[in-house]
Amino acid sequence: MAVPLLQQVWAELLGAPDAVDRVRARGSAGLPGPLPVGQLAVGTAVAHLLAAQELRSRGGPGELADQYLHLDAAHVGVEFGSERHLRVDGVPRAGGFAPLSRAWPTSDGWVRTHANYPHHRAALLRVLGLGADDDDEAASPRLAAALAERSALDVEEAVTAAGGLAVAVRTPQEWSATPMGAAVARSPLVSLRRVDDGSAPGSSGSGGGSGGGSGVDGIEGARVLDLTRVIAGPTATRALAAHGADVLRVDPPQLPELPEQWLETGPGKRCCELDLTAPGGRTCLEELLAGADVLVHGYRPGALARHGLDERSLAERHPHLVVASLSAWGEQGPWAQRRGFDSLVQAASGVAVMSGGADGRPGALPVQALDHAAGQLLAAAVLRALALRRDGGTWHASTSLAAQARWLLANAVVSASDAPQPPPAEAPRAERYLVDVPSPDGVLTVVRPLGAAPWASGPVRTAAEWLPR
Hints:
Blueprint: H1 4-12, E1 23-26, H2 37-56, E2 69-72, H3 73-79, E3 87-88, E4 91-92, E5 103-105, E6 110-113, H4 118-127, H5 136-148, H6 152-161, E7 166-168, H7 172-176, H8 179-185, E8 190-196, E9 223-227, H9 232-242, E10 246-251, H10 259-264, E11 269-273, H11 281-291, E12 294-297, H12 311-317, E13 322-327, H13 342-349, H14 351-354, H15 369-388, E14 394-400, H16 401-410, E15 434-437, E16 444-447, E17 460-461
Parallel strand pairs: 1-2, 9-10, 9-12, 10-11, 11-17, 12-13, 13-14
Antiparallel strand pairs: 3-4, 3-16, 5-6, 6-7, 8-14, 15-16
Helix pairs in contact: 1-2, 2-15, 9-15, 13-16, 15-16
């Protein structure tokens, strides 16, 4: 299964080219549409599992020459829609979009808003002259009327400036012509780079404060500090937990996560709250970093610098640490500092237009594939970095939702109208891929992990500290 996507990703992850020849996939991901979502899903999932297989081999890639990696594509398809399958004590708790999070017609096109979180909802309504205390049923028609009187770009700029989330719906051509679209076009799907030539973990030259995780060789027992939210980052760290990592998720107390997302992406993790702006919060984080093997964060590029956690400072103070970062729009370009979600990236990049209907209304991918693909790649990058740091050095990885969208658009295949069309892929039956996991919040029914045994527990609230070892 030497598909171009896997070859590209594996090269960007600094893997041996012949490793992709060991992959054997069966079935279909069942993710239909005009864009190759199934290929993106399977390719990124394979990269994650291939990286896990190589890391488990203490002898290196050569020891795996005769070992094949077998993948059930249908399992991948269900995994990419995992948030739809959450049940708590048998009651469906599937996540979804809030009523004000959707595409709206404007005076000259369409705009996509995101109002799932209260502070984003309040900013959107405030900009449009509406009260944040109005319920969704009352606010919706008034919001629609206000948006219809303004241009899409005007709404995008005003809502963004107010701290809210809205993007004008663009065609792929319109996105490519923007400075941000051009910046994304120059970026890799995933980046893995050495930022310091430090000593190998466990050697006398290795840093890391209290020593913490710098001596761990592999993923089993590795300490992963998870500073991510929503879907993409937590999906990556959930996968690392399934492979045996000690994942500690840290959330700011002033911005609680949506309960369904926290439960669905939390299996295998310990979770705590930590306010970096409060006295002692920064000190506590530094202690956690000193004991960690991996930091995975979803802060916008440069946002951690105000806490002294920029790339260079981290490499100097914690040379043992693997750092993996996720962003919506990428590390370069005028939108690098903007917030973003899968649905917004789909809208801005042209994916929504390509997925829309004949009536011109924007559509959407069959799953939040940008989030899940980015999560799979981030997990792959962490696993590859842990393997590479055996020879020393400080490794940093990054990916973005916009990079996943760019790949989908670049690889869209438009068939001739008279060419025979393949039948639509049948959605896989999800139930066979679900597993019940005990948790303090009840029994969670979730999609079982790819390439690993089920988690022992759902998310557990704990103190901001590592487990002893």
